Amino acid sequence: MSKKVLVLSASPRKGGNSDLLCDQFILGAKEAGHSVERIFLKDREINYCTGCGACYSMGEGCPQEDDMPEVLEKMIAADVIVMATPVYFYTMNGQMKTLIDRTCSRYTEISDKDFYCDGSRR
Ligand SMILES: Cc1cc2nc3c(=O)[nH]c(=O)nc-3n(C[C@H](O)[C@H](O)[C@H](O)COP(=O)(O)O)c2cc1C
């Protein structure tokens, strides 16, 4: 069965190491008949979560107006999510952490998926 694969690429360096790993993953996924979309987080406006609580204590959506609603829709619709980040000081980079924080309003809907995490390092 063909799956919808969403690749979230967090490195600020297009064509860098994380990207090379993504390229290979995407090649394999396409060869296996899956549809793939890759999002470079650096191309999107994704602001920090401000911890305002509108989403988790008031049951409202996130009040920020940036590109995150579109990215969240794609995450919810995907069958497979690939999170590709360079390792910065033993963990994910800030762009990836910011993305994860901003799923706060809808993360319970991001379920029943295959997740792959790729951390490229030195
Ligand atoms: C701020 C910063 C912190 C880093 N911290 C680590 C680290 O803790 N461990 C490691 O092995 N590499 C570390 N690196 C190296 C990167 O993880 C490595 O070069 C990575 O492959 C870069 O991925 P990219 O080409 O996709 O940007 C760091 C690089 C930067 C810029």
From TrEMBL:
<dbReference type="InterPro" id="IPR029039">
    <property type="entry name" value="Flavoprotein-like_sf"/>
</dbReference>
<comment type="similarity">
    <text>Belongs to the SsuE family. Isf subfamily.</text>
</comment>
<feature type="domain" description="NADPH-dependent FMN reductase-like">
    <location>
        <begin position="4"/>
        <end position="108"/>
    </location>
</feature>
<keyword id="KW-0288">FMN</keyword>
<dbReference type="InterPro" id="IPR005025">
    <property type="entry name" value="FMN_Rdtase-like_dom"/>
</dbReference>
<dbReference type="Pfam" id="PF03358">
    <property type="entry name" value="FMN_red"/>
</dbReference>
<dbReference type="InterPro" id="IPR051796">
    <property type="entry name" value="ISF_SsuE-like"/>
</dbReference>
<protein>
    <submittedName>
        <fullName>Iron-sulfur flavoprotein</fullName>
    </submittedName>
</protein>
<dbReference type="GO" id="GO:0016491">
    <property type="term" value="F:oxidoreductase activity"/>
</dbReference>
<keyword id="KW-0285">Flavoprotein</keyword>
